[in-house]
């Protein structure tokens, strides 16, 4: 099962919700973790179970980073706001860095996120086909 983290800055929360709704079927077959507010919103709007950690500015990005460092996540969908400065910029930079350190796929915009979702979908469909063949 893919372990995916969802993170969205305030200006990108609506886009994250729309993204989660669009990919609800695929995401329902994944284990979802998120920063606090993103997680609550995705859960509210989709009904998907999401483990919501601390809010980003309060340490949520660092918690996601620690999951990356311990190989507890397979990919991160991070809808970043490139136009507004964030108070917790150092935490964000650290999260991006730790993904590169551990070679964990990280999408920081919608189109990259779509490509990662297409990969996850293909993978899930492939596993289902294999399961049907062997059963
Ligand atoms: O700030 C964030 C990522 O840097 C996101 O945090 P929230 O999901 O709690 O808004």
UniProtKB/TrEMBL annotation:
Belongs to the methylglyoxal synthase family. PANTHER family: METHYLGLYOXAL SYNTHASE. InterPro entries: Methylgl_synth (IPR004363), Methylglyoxal_synth_AS (IPR018148), MGS-like_dom (IPR011607), MGS-like_dom_sf (IPR036914). Substrate binds at residues 9, 13, 35-38, 55-56, 88. The gene is mgsA. Pfam families: MGS. It is an enzyme of class 4 (lyase). The active site is at residue 61. GO terms for molecular function: methylglyoxal synthase activity. Residues 1-135 form the MGS-like domain. It catalyses: dihydroxyacetone phosphate = methylglyoxal + phosphate. This is Methylglyoxal synthase. It comes from the Bacteria. PROSITE patterns: METHYLGLYOXAL_SYNTH (PS01335), MGS (PS51855). NCBIfam families: MGSA, PRK05234.1. Catalyzes the formation of methylglyoxal from dihydroxyacetone phosphate. Its EC number is 4.2.3.3. The keyword Calcium does not apply. Transmembrane segments: none annotated. GO terms for biological process: methylglyoxal biosynthetic process. GO terms for cellular component: cytosol. Keywords: Lyase. The keyword Lyase applies. SMART domains: MGS.
């Amino acid at each position: 099962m893919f372990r995916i983290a969802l993170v969205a800055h305030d200006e990108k929360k609506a886009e994250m919700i729309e993204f989660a709704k669009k990919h609800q079927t695929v995401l329902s077959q994944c284990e979802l973790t998120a920063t606090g507010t993103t997680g609550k919103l995705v859960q509210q709007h989709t009904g998907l179970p999401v483990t919501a950690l601390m809010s980003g500015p309060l340490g949520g990005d660092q918690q996601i980073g620690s999951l990356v460092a311990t190989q507890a996540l397979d990919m991160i969908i991070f809808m970043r706001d490139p136009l507004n400065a964030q108070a917790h910029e150092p935490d964000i930079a650290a999260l991006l860095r730790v993904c590169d350190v551990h070679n964990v796929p990280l999408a920081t915009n919608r189109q990259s996120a779509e490509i990662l979702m297409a990969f996850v979908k293909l993978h899930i469909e492939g596993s289902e086909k294999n399961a049907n063949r062997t059963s």
